[in-house]
Amino acid sequence: MNAARGGGLGNQEDGDVMIKRLFAGAATLLLSGALGVTGALAQSNSLGGQKTPVSNPSQLLSSLHAEAIIPVLAEMGLQYQGATLPNGQKVILAKAPNGIKFQLTPMACDKSAKRCRGLNMVAMFQTNAPTRTVSSFNYRYAFISAGLDDTGVAYITRYDIADYGMPKGNLAVSLSNYLHMASVFDRHLYEATNTVNKEASGQDFAANGLNMRGILADTSLAQQVGLSEASHQVSFESITDVVDTFVKADGLAPGRIINQVKGQR
Predict the structure, then answer these.
(1) What is the CATH number of the domain that holds 152?
(2) What pLDDT score was predicted for residue 178?
(3) For 37, what's the count of Cα atoms within 13 Å in the CB-facing half-sphere?
């Protein structure tokens, strides 16, 4: 975010008008957001009128324990194997059609492990990619969290919360979008160590935007890959644009949006 936070430009009404204009421009950014399309599972988004990824998508899963998740994985065509950790916790080792292995760990479970309110997804990659590559990726994509441990293993995680249940379709969409992001992560880790420019930056990730604009401009291609302006994968590419827009808006009307750190709330 390079926007300077300057002083107010005139009275409060002028600031509000300028903020509205800035947000109107941001809407265009959101609709033309970027995506590097991969061979991962196609995402589904009912708002985009796309085919649902599983049957009975509105069926409520009251818990995200292993036995409740497996039928969704099977219907999505994912390979899976149950496993039990030394502490007795049940986890699922899974594999996507494109070969990416990932693990599903039910979280926030009761003593019987039959009522779990959370689900952690993690995929790990052995890499010698620089820390900057992982940090830039983590900054750009809010849907997931990415990190790098001391042994050179990069990981991408997501934590879903379902205190009051989760529709079956929501879990499937969350999984498919997570696997899409894992594929994008894999590609950037590879490019960071196998191309001339080995230091990935925000500009490298932003290049996905140019690809997406081209895809959305071609209606036939967009339909073929199952994407539209309402697709989550498109929105993922726009998060940093949203942040930049709010920072600029606060520069026009200081104190209206950005919090001051106080240490005690």
Answers:
(1) 3.30.1460.70
(2) 94
(3) 18
Residue 192 included in any domain: yes
Whether residue 257 contacts residue 246, with contact meaning beta carbons closer than 8 Å, is answered with yes
- Does the pTM of the predicted model rise above 0.90? no
**Tokens encoding 226:** 């199952």
Residue 167 structure tokens? 């529709």
Phi, psi of 123 (to 5 degrees): -125, 135
Is 101 within a domain? yes
Task: Give yes or no for a contact between 75 and 54, defined as CB atoms under 8 angstroms apart.
Answer: yes
Place of tokens 């995200």: 64
Distance CA(102)–CA(85), nearest Å, equals: 16
Instruction: Please indicate, yes or no, if residue 223 is contained in any of the structural domains.
Output: no
- Higher-pLDDT residue of 24 and 259 is 259
| Cα–Cα nearest to 29, from 209, 176, 192, 220 | 209
- Does 60 fall in a domain? yes
For 186-247, give the DSSP string. Answer: HHHHHHHHHSS--S--HHHHHHHHHHHHHHHHSHHHHHHTT--TT-HHHHHTTHHHHHHHHH
pLDDT over 90 at 170, yes or no:
yes
Q: What is the pLDDT of residue 4?
A: 38
Q: How many domains does the chain have?
A: 1
CA–CA separation, 222 and 4 (whole Å): 36
Asked if the model's pLDDT at residue 18 lies above 50, the reply is: no
C-alpha 56/C-alpha 169 separation (Å) is 7
pLDDT band at 142 (very low <50, low <70, confident <90, very high): confident
- Which residue, among 124, 129, 122, 139, has the nearest Cα to 236 in the 3D structure? 139
Domain that holds residue 170: 55-199
pLDDT score of 115 more than 50: yes
